[in-house]
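User: Predict the full complex structure for these chains.
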Amino acid sequence: MTDASMQPSGTPPPPAEDVHDLRPPRNQWWDVWDQFKTHKGALAGMIVFISILLFVTAGPWIWAVDPGLIDIRSRNQGSSWAHPMGTDQLGRDILARMMYGGRVSVAVGLVAMLLGLLLGTLIGVLAGYFKPMDGPLMRLTDLFLALPLLPLLLILVTLFRDTLEGMFGQATGVFLLIVFAIAITSWMQTARIVRGDVLALKEREFVLAARSIGTPSRRINTRHILPNVMSPIMVSATLGIATAIITESALSFLGLGFPPDFPTWGRILYDGRDWIEQYPARVVWPGVFISLTVLSVNYIGDGLRDALDPRIRGR
Amino acid sequence: MRHRTALMGAVAAAALIPGMALAQERERGSSGHLNMIYWQAISTMNVFLSGGTKEMNAASIVLEPLARFDNMGELTPWLVDEVPTLDNGGVSEDLKSITWVLSEGLLWSDGTEVTADDVVFTWEYCTHPEGGCAYRDRFAGVESVEAVDDRTIVVSFEDATPNPYLPFVGAGSPIIQRAQFQDCTGTRAPECTDANFAPIGTGPYVVTDFRPNDVVQFEANPNYRVPTQPYFQTITWAGGGDAAGAARAVFQTGEMDYAWNLQLAPEVIEQMEAGGRGELLVDFGPLMERIEINFTDPSPSLPEGERATRQHPHPILSDIRVREALSLAIDRELLTEIGFGPMGQPTCNFIVAPPAMASPNNDACLVQDIDRANELLDEAGWEMGSDGIRTRDGERLELLFQTSTNAVRQDFQALIQQWWREIGIDTRLRNIDAGVFFGSDPGSPDTYLKFYADVQMYASLFEGTDPTPHLEQRRCGREPQPDTQWQGQNINRYCNEEYDALWSELNREPDPDRRVELVIALNDMFVQDFAHLPLVARGRVSAASTTVGGIVMNVWDSEHWNQAEWYRIEE
Amino acid sequence: MLNYTLRRLAFAVPTVLVISLIVFLMLDMAPGDPTASLPLTIPPEVREQMRLALGLGDPVLVRYVKWLHMMVVVEPSHMIANATGWNIGVEGPRILSWQTRSPVGDIIVQRMPQTLWVVGLGYLFGILIAVPIGVISAYRQYSWFDQAGTFVSMVGFSVPTFFTGVVFILIFSVWLGWFPSMYDTTHQVRDWDSFVFQVRQIAMPVAVLALFNASQISRFMRASMLDNLNQDYVRTARAKGLREKTVVLVHVLRNSMIPVVTVIAIGIPTVFTGAIITEQIFRVNGLGDALIRAIYVSDWPMVQTITFIFAILIVLFNLIADVLYGILDPRIRYD
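Assistant: Here is the predicted structure of the three-chain assembly.
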């Protein structure tokens, strides 16, 4: 093992040119950022993703059209100044619906991914590092992998819908339900991959070394193991956010997700599917937005993966 | 819209004539192979175990009833030579029995003879207490079915029955073979997979390969009673995909010759039809999309068991002026145009078909009148508030509007919500998964039977051409309630002594003309009370390739009632 | 290793049983009524009788034990009997679908071929495409090939299959007329022409699935290769004077395959349940289609059985993945 990999990645060796510098050592996240910047795809992805976030959050302030407003005389229109993306079969403005729909889709993607990642990493590390917990946790993983998402969603809907609707209103209730359902059925991949890496890592010399000098388990995990499984977690995270957005639209596609009067990108795409020949834009816009979001997130993940890996950084 | 239907009839008639003229030239099997697609696939060939429309359609080309309805809704003898009536003595004077006589020389597809005993067995099979037969209500009120001789069957009723044409009539009540099904009664019914998937029938086709929810293959029945028919030798009856895919396969790619139930947006259908390979078949039956108005209070603050029962009348909707205002605010023409196009007709009637029974007296509601609706609400004491929502005695005019999850219904909900808002009503929308909404689980709060909402939207229909049982549903005491495990068909809890009296008169009346008058009177009473708001009469919509002739759309029976006469048009 | 495998197998049985019980109880709580999809002309009283005829009267645990007996004893015996022609089918009731009222096992056997053809081939082609792309992308990191490969795989992964599917049908089936828009399950491959037809009818769904799977797997492949290319053993191997080809294709590839094999093995069970959406769009009546349609009509015995088979496959393939892990990476010791 070289010195570099003996070092926990939290404190990488200072770059050579800084040795003679008297300024205080730079924060490691600047190094990460420097590396990240060199990845053109990641940078572009970052810009696209921020634009999409702005589109769905700030957009409705600039384009102040009610997405539910029915204007039956101007239905099924192509793009015009009044309706840049045209109107749907009830004359509702598609641009406004894309903005509101995007809020939900992006929020579902982010929250479900974070939740799933948290759960997956926790279980993966616990299972990989603490041998007695490995069996039960992995059986739990198997169990969750074997649960089909769709019936689970249906059951969750009946069991909790009334309670959640009462507590948060219909929109938020359905949102929480779907986020929870996606998270609970998507953490297992992360858990298995993390566990696999942890299993390999804990046999590695630097962990053995750390343990031999009496480092407690929690510290080994947070300082030595977790930073080293960061790269698979990042790959998982980007895949996870994409999967969550796609799962949400797939659920809508199967009629089991958000109800038809609740615009999300997946729902808009599904509703436009029958119209693809007359008005391809109705499928293309949500399709492009879903794809762009997922694409940009993936590129960001890619850049982060390289930037976070101290062995690649500074090469 | 109306002329379009008339035109369809003309096309159908025209298609029949060359069919007749060329009948001599055509022979059994001469048209080769036919491809049909049902995007909801066939799950069994035994109609008694399924009850679904698609299964009934598929089974109708194998299993046949004694008589069935033609495309005009007229009763037509099928396995008999004539339909028994009072005039020909087939129906007894006291209306308590009907005597059917089978045609001579009828054979099952396995070559054995069809006897009266098979008909008796069919009755035994379907009325077995543990069999769970889906068409059991066809035999409601039947005291006995007896075979007098090999060809004569007497059906006796418990009471005088003016309409004795329910048992063994129509695609929902076909005859099955005793020899094949005798070990399959009661709880053993589902175990006879081979029989359920390939029943032996008298129809033009026999099943050669059945894959549940996937594909069925048929071959011409060698023992079919018309020697020159059926013209198609084999049929592949595919299933799966979605409505758009099925329409595309007929209209654009030409992979399929016939597609069923194409509930698609009107513009989409028109665009596909422009492909020119197929044409749309539409005809109107009793299916009607409506809004039901709850006469009882569904408030969650009431204890379970009293909620949505007649103990608590609805605080807002018990007032007829409010109900009328709700109706006036709706533009039915626009709803039809957006949701169904040529496949729907705006209507104001409860009984929309047969045409003779559709009341001409209610067409006023076809015109939207927001001003009048506002006036009515003013009269009823609901005052417009500053936020555009009416109030009365501090109570806001709020309604909960529920329906099943379905793209067209959600569009309708959004439109109606907007219209009702214009007259100062705040409508909350809710949609429920169809599997729950149309379920009859007494434990679920979300079924259309429990009706824990102020108004709800769905479509309903009745079988055959006699609306008497359908009208009976709205009698007092027929409503879903805790005592009956929430079973019952008086969905809106309508209760009107006059209505009940008039219905009893209809139920005793044998004279056809007087019956029509009574049906119209009942219909008018019901809809002029604004007890429910009819919206759109929905047609049966299928598509057929331009290369297939002889198809006659039928809304009163199976769409495939004359499958034997379909043929390939030679180029 | 053998010891470990046997122990895992012994654990697998109770795992699968617990899963099946949980799924059974969940479905029992689920809303939805098997008679809900029937026309409204059928009165509620008749529906109630139909429900009783489905055997919904028994308590839930009784139904579970009955189902389990049929699932592990009766159905396999019939499957073996059908496959071999031996007359060993165990007497007694079989698991009946509520919708078709026929044995669930027969339907699953019927649905298997098209699922294996379409989804299986989609997966296989996906792997075959993904591995070389991942290897080259990582080896020539940031080259134009890497950028292009990354971009294509990102796009393939980012565009939902139901979007690509609909676009494919529109272009290749409606406009160009190259491929049929629906799958004919009755088609049998007998000669060259029928083989060509089979290829045409699976081309679009396989292409869509292969693209999607390849995108996913190539991401993992590339990431894993990159991890390994910077390891010390690679430097050692190079320093030893090994040929670059040997270093990459033998040493690095072998080590990089470890996490990838996990991902591939975990994904295999999804081949069997089928890509529900792709099957729906291309009208392939496979297992995924059977599952989703059973959910729509609340056909719980069907859902339960397919889910159970899925559970068995997952447990099995996870086990296989772990065993492969041990074989590929001797640093991991299970005992």
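Chain A has one domain: 51-56+90-308.
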